[in-house]
Structure formats: structure tokens, C-alpha cells
Design a protein that fits this description.
single chain, 573 residues, alpha+beta, Alpha-Beta Plaits, DNA Primase, Chain A, 4 domains, 23 helices, 43% helix, binds zinc ion
Amino acid sequence: MKRTDFLNALGNASPICLSNHNKIITLNNIESLNGTHELHYIPNLGGKKADEITQFKTFFIDLDSGKDKNGDYFPLSKVSEYKEQKQKQLEKFPIYPSAVIETRNGLQVYWFIGEPISRENWQRIENALIAYFNADIKVKSPANQMRLPDTFWVKDKNNPFYCKIISLHKRSYSEKDFDFLDIEKISSIKLNPEKFKKILTSKTFYNYQDLFDHITKEVDLFQYLRDFYDLEAQNINSFKCIAHNDNNPSASVFKSKDGIWLYSCRATSCDFKIGNIIQVVQHLSKLPRHLAIQKICSDLGLEFTEDAEQKRILEDNLKVIKDDIKYSHPKLYSVIYRYIPTLTVLHYLAMDNLVYANNEDEFLFTGSTRYLARMLGRHDKKRTGEDLSFLSLAKMLKKVDIESDTVPGRYRDMVMRLKRENERYINTYSIPAYTLEHLRKCEDFANVIIEKGIRKIEFCYATVANAFGSELADEIFPQAKNTVCKDLDMNLYNVVENLIAQKSYVTEKIIREYYKEHHMHWPEKTFICQMPIIITKLGLIKIRTNKKLKEQYGIISSGYPNIFIKKETALAN
Ligand SMILES: [Zn+2]
């Protein structure tokens, strides 16, 4: 990419060029001055002054990392970080830049203009771009001088820097292409040099939820609006709303019970009532949600890198299940096809919640069975939980024991916090890539599942432990792990047997009450994991009562509880 290509694409092949002290020079003089003089040019056509410009060839912004507090340029390593961060922001911006020039302290970005545009409209879009990218606000005049590509920056004589074209796409745009930016709103953001901050300390988020928590809870919304929007108030509890033309203070910023900063306006005439930082930015800048998040990130020097690679693997998996395995892996298919909806929503959950656990080369995600059940339109989480356990046996997913050493401490803490705060019944999973090799293993194992006659109905810890040993059972039912399962709890066994003999049915509640009356310690974990074995040994089944059964057994409790009864009696009914 050469300077001439760049200037031709810009549509200004011989622009006004300037050297030190704004001395006008010709393009032919450039090479003799390059390396000793600062060399600039004026991209737009017409003259040297703003009001002389007649042809608007391009929008441009100067992304400049600025200087440190001593007034020195940042070291190149630091500047590189800044450049990378800005490059990423540019990649995500819906309108791809026509050209990017790398300078010593940042990037100069161009969007070439293909159609005539009025001075007013040019300035409005120019200002909006500056505000959006938090670019240098001094670079906004139609006659602004920009660095001439392929020339040396020589402000530090001992360390010249070659400013080169790092991308040139020869694309040009029209006013309409910028419609998605609400130009009026963004460009009305006051461009105040004192508030113009360059943030070099960036923080990277790999997960949407972490990012959301950070920007809605950690970021001081009031201060953010003072820094990046037109808020000048001092009193957080009562100030003039910036979402409408407010004569009396009707707005406030406060923290919700769960720690989210909220902006609220009580004026009836205001379009905005209450919302978090994302919603405030959406409203003020008229941006769709994802661009509002991008703007907040760019303002605050945050970076959001979702794991695209793993998402693609998950998308592939869904296609494999839907399109490929029916004929190629018929046994696997016959074992899992009923549970494909559950497996599908689990993939969706994974896409939204992935976290990279870097010490185990494994992606982890966490979600509640209740939530998955709701996504499947089910009222009861039990069936969904069973589906997941069965799919785990079929090696379509892995339940991760959060206590295990392979889980990073940071992640474990997060899951534990989640458990405490809102949901006890959450599990951590990982999903393997459904490669041909993995599917081959699954097919072989599906064959074993079929041979052993294992079905999802009455599928429990004991089923797996009896068929494959307790190690696999621990994996599939991590909540029952570390409970003593090898030796049957004879105490529990006897209690259940006696109660059945007395009443011909028993419920969990009755067993619990028996323990309480006899001042015995209630073995919760043992109960969960051994009841399936005890049921099998005593020839019981668990069924849900109905009106008839309640009458038959003289059950007077409200509702229709689950009861354990002898299998023969159930069959006789
Ligand atoms: Zn308002």
C-alpha cells in the first residue's frame, strides 16, 4: 500500500501539503524533507482554512494515546496496547474504515465520502464519530491537517517513527451509511477538552455476564454521565435530567438492592423512566443495545472478547446433532434423540455463559436446571435434570464437580456466590466438541447402554453405580458424590422396610418424621443417593398419588405427594 494509492482512493491525488511552521510544499518536495521535517496534508479540497473547503472527501478521526502526567509521550509498548484496543473497536464498528494510518501515538482513521455532502452534515457526522470513538476533539475542522502517510514522525529526533498505511479498503460511504449513529444525539454531546480522557489501562472481559456486572455495578453511573455526557450536576439525589429538557431537578442516580446503579427520572414528560447504564446510553445516544455496550467499553477503556472459537464449536455441535448423526451413529441417536431439545437449550446456555478455565483447557459454564426447564417450556425442573444426567452418561456433556482441583479458584468462588445469592440448584458443565473421534466413542458406549437396558426412566445414581461403578456415577451425579454408597445404610433400610410393613406406603416426609421422633440424625446425602438402591432392594416404586390412591392409603395431607409402594401393589392397581 503506497501513498499514491491512498491519495487516489481518497479522491485527492495532489492535496495541499505542509511542512514545519505550516509552510506549503509540493508533493515533489516530500522525499527530500522526509525524516527531518513533520509532513502533513489537507484531505478535503478547497483551501487551507475551514471555510475555504468546498469538497468533503472524507471523515477522519485522530485516535491519539496522548501524553503522561509529566507531558511525555507514552512508551511504544504502552501505545501498542492502546492501538490494539482501538483496532478492536474499529473492527466491531458497523462501518468499516476506508483507511487506517498508524502514527507514533495512535491511529488516524478515515471514512471516504463518495457523494457530495453539505458542510453542516459533514460536521455533524464528524463530531458524532469523534464522540463515539472518544477521539481527539481538536481534530474536527474540515481543513484539518493530517499526517501524510509514508513519512516519519520526527518530534523526537532520536527516535523517528515511520507512519504507514496499515489498511486501505478504497470503500467510500454516503451520509445514509451513518444513520445508525443517532447523529443529533451523539454530536450534541458536549466535546469538552477537560473531560476528554484517554484511558490506557484497559480491562478485558471474556464473558458477557462479568462485563455486565462490572459496568452496571462497579462503574459509578453518576460519574460516568458527568465524564461522557452532558451532566454537570453535583447532587446525585436530585439533578436536572439529561434525557429531557428539565427545568426543575427531577432525576436521580441510586443503587438497587442487588447493587446495580440506576438512573431515574420522575418527570411525567420524560421518555426515560428508569434504567441501568446500558439503557441510559441506549436512550441518550439512540444506539441499539450491543452498540451501547461497545460505546461504554470504549469510553472506559474496557475490552470485551467473547470466545468466538468455542461458540463456533458449539454451533457445529448443534448441526452435528440435527443433521449428521441419525445415519452415521444410529445407536447414539436412538439413545439421545428424545433429549435433543434439552441438549440444544444447554448449548444456547453455554453460548451465553462461557468462561475459559485456563488451567484445564476446558470451557466451563454454569446454569440452573430450573432455567433450562423454563426455556423448554416445562414447569418442573426434575425431568430436565434427568435428561441432563442421561445425556451426561451418553457423553454429550460433562458435569463438572465445582470442588475439583481442575476448576480455577476464581471460577469456583463465582459459582459459590451464585449458589448463595440466587439459586441452589445450579450445575457447572462443559461440552466437548462432537468430533468424529468423540462420536465414535459415544456410539460404542451407546451400544453398552442399550445392552444393559438402561433407560432414562428411573435413571439414578444407583443405576449407574450398579452398571458401571461408582466412579462414573460420581461424575454423572456430582451432588451425590462423596456420600457413602458402597455400604448400604442398614439403619435407613430398616426404617423404610418397617414403615412400609406398617402402612403399606411411605413418603420422604414420613421417613424424616420418624427420624425426628426417634432423635436420630437425618442422613440427607445418604438418603438422596441410597434411596434408589433401597427402592430396588425392597421392590418398591415411587409414584405420584391421585385422589383414588390417597383414599386407598388414607393419606390426608393436602396436595398429591409422591409415595413409595410395593411394585406388585402398584401393578395390581
Ligand atoms: Zn427526564
